[in-house]
Design goal:
single chain; 89% helix; mainly alpha; 2 helices; 0% strand
Length: 94
């Protein structure tokens, strides 16, 4: 009886993780599309012959690069943590 309940808890946790991952991917790709549109609009409207406009474009691209690298680092950390939890769930208690 107890092993059935533990199996249900594991299955429920795994289902929640999968559902959460789907929502994350949808939000990530939606945000990426929005940011690409923003960057394209910035590049299309900037007068690249002007030094100020070039400076603004370089600043924006540099800022986005730093934020993107930070998000990748956080995602890698969270992914590693989730994998450790999944491994702990899958290992039978001794």
């Amino acid at each position: 009886m107890e092993s059935n309940k533990l199996a249900e808890i594991r299955a429920d946790a795994l289902a929640r993780i999968v559902r959460s991952e789907r929502w994350f991917k949808a939000a990530f790709f939606g945000g990426a599309i929005f940011e690409l549109a923003f960057l394209a609009a910035l590049l299309l409207t900037a007068d690249l012959s002007s030094r100020l406009d070039r400076l603004v474009v370089i600043g924006v691209i540099g800022s986005y690069t730093l934020v993107l690298l930070g998000l990748v680092a956080v995602a890698a950390y969270v992914n590693r943590s989730v994998l450790r939890v999944l491994r702990a769930i899958e290992v039978p208690a001794e």
